[in-house]
Design a protein that fits this description.
homodimer, about 375 residues, mainly beta, Sulfite Oxidase, Chain A, domain 2, Immunoglobulin-like, five-stranded mixed sheet, 5 helices
């Protein structure tokens, strides 16, 4: 297998100073962001949730699909979708975010999917808790990693592989991982992992493997590409880096008023405007505070509740909009005291940018 | 109302030579293209159909929604969604394409949503024929235009307006326009126009007004912004231009093999590969022929049928893939003899680029 032809494409430096390459545009046209105007809703409408798919979406018939649990299990299993859907069903609102959300704001920028703010969404996921299924397969005492294998296959930096990620037994004990076959009251859509995926609440989206074909118990650490090389925080390219896990605290403003079609700048009438948005953190840690920067001062917003432990929290703030041009910002702090930085830290691949969201607003002067 | 603050943004020339501005990226992150790997399917999975929304998506409760038919009608009407859904129901597979699809390939490029090839999709639309409803409202004999008003509001080149488009009585007589409340067996999604929209089969997507609030019968021609100024073919900016109507003949190749994550280049094993894709034209004109350019010669593909009169036609072609780098192209011809050009014609706003689709493929040499 000759993989060299693809390799050089990844070595190109990203274009800088607000210009983007054709490869970046192709990724932006292919992957899709949340519609920011839906940030007043607890649950993102189906089809408006962000989508980041590394390879081609496999369209898999439900009837043909099986999940295999193999490796270091005493009671390995092969299950049909009917077997899986017969397990105890739970529905949980979970906020997912791509670890690369905000990459466009990290400078210098890596040559990957150029997310601005849109790679987030909340769905009601329908499935069953994963931990009891693993127990049923009787894992050996010395299991070090459970590997989740996806059906999606392709090349990344010249490495051909099926997308796969792992979680340790301790991760499984601490996280409420779900095996998922439905979304927002319907069967999973192909692009969200049909017929079967996992959801790892509180972690960035790369952990929530789609098109799940197998769970493999290993007595060594998993060294697959997306686990051992991809998805690490790095400040220089050749360091081992720190594995990406929990979502960092973040918040977004629902753009107020009405948009300009191309620039997406906002036009607002003068007077009282209720600003609103959503804030979230990782690991099930609740949001403690959201502040809004308007008229040069930070002011605390009202929190309006979350649809689930692992889902974002709504917020709102009444603003007296005075004629002129304004920049609005919001900043969330979680119950562990983590808060959003004003500027993004540097990361080689642009991961984990949770710096504050800004919106440009023009407030109309009724006298003009 | 002071609209000047937005106006200058539209006067910026587009960045050229394969670089894109931050405004263009924002639009690409917001609007979403079809996943090209679903081009083997008659019906695009819900959520993978292209989306182009000028303004913010209004989220409208079904219970509150009414459709008003007013203006030059003898029997004006106001209908609830229950009234509308009680009308005779039809389901029709219709291919929609954005008039700006392919804009990225038009040089020099206009500063609008930079679609490459992805602004197309086919859904099964559920609704009722529109013409009998217009007759029920008894239009005056001198009606010149029926205006379709959307709930979405914003600015375009400094002009604030609700999105609205019109069709003449002759258009209504010739086109099978549908009033639509469902899609792929489900209620319409907010971003596709819920609770009510029209579908104008065979025309570019701008005609298929979403979030429909009213149909107004005019005894003059409609001069709304999106009808009288927007959506015209122009070779110079200040000419009146030609209104955009029917979809031009076009075809796409489903990318064969497996992708490279960032560049989307394709890796294929040597040997027989069945290439496949979809081809379509406007106005209900069937596809007569699809040709594939491979190994320096055009060869005719097999047509595999269409799911409806206004929907795309599948095609396939067996290719003997030899090791090396290849560029594959496809070209459709419709039953009226219209065919795709090799290069895009110039249009000021990048509309109507139906030039041929190319895919870069690397065929593996098993001996390497």
């Amino acid at each position: 297998m000759n993989i060299n032809p693809f390799h050089p494409d990844f070595e190109k430096p990203a274009t800088t100073d607000g210009l983007f390459s054709r490869d970046e545009l192709r990724l932006a046209n292919r992957n899709s962001g949340i519609l920011l105007e839906t940030l007043n809703l607890d649950i993102t409408p189906t089809g408006a949730h962000y989508l980041l798919n590394h390879f081609d979406v496999p369209v898999i018939a439900d009837d043909d699909h099986q999940l295999t649990l193999n490796g270091a299990f005493d009671a390995p299993l092969t299950l049909s979708m009917d077997d899986i859907r017969a397990m105890p069903q739970v529905t949980e609102a979970v906020t997912l975010e791509c670890a690369g959300n905000g990459r466009e704001g990290v400078s210098p920028r890596s040559h990957l999917m150029p997310w601005m703010y849109e790679a987030v969404g909340t769905s009601e996921w329908i499935g069953t808790p994963l931990a009891p299924l693993l127990e049923r397969a009787k894992p050996h005492d010395n299991v070090q990693d459970y590997v989740f294998h996806g059906a999606d296959f392709g090349f990344d930096k010249g490495h051909p592989h099926n997308f796969a990620r792992s979680l340790t037994p301790q991760d499984i004990a601490e996280l409420d991982v779900m095996l998922v076959w439905g979304m927002n009251g319907q069967p999973l859509l192909p692009q969200h992992g049909a017929p079967l995926r996992i959801i790892v609440p509180g972690w960035y989206g790369m952990a929530s493997v789609k098109w799940l074909t197998g769970i493999e118990a290993l007595t060594t650490r998993f060294d697959g590409y997306q686990q051992a090389h991809g998805y690490h925080y790095r400040t220089v390219a050749d360091e081992p880096g720190v594995p990406i896990t929990r979502i960092l605290v973040k918040s977004l403003i629902r753009p107020p008023g009405v948009p300009d079609w191309v620039s997406r700048k906002r036009w607002v009438e003068a007077g009282k405007i209720t600003l609103e948005g959503r804030a979230w953190s990782g690991g099930g840690v609740p949001i403690a505070k959201v502040e809004v920067l308007a008229d040069s001062q930070w002011q605390e917003a009202e929190l309006t509740g979350a649809p689930g432990r692992y889902a974002w929290t709504g917020w709102r703030f009444d603003w007296q909009a005075k004629p002129g041009d304004h920049v609005l910002k919001c900043r969330a702090t979680d119950a562990e005291g983590n808060t959003q930085p004003m500027e993004s830290a540097f990361d080689v691949a642009g991961f984990g940018n949770n710096s504050v969201h800004s919106i440009d607003v023009h407030v109309d002067d009724p006298a003009v």
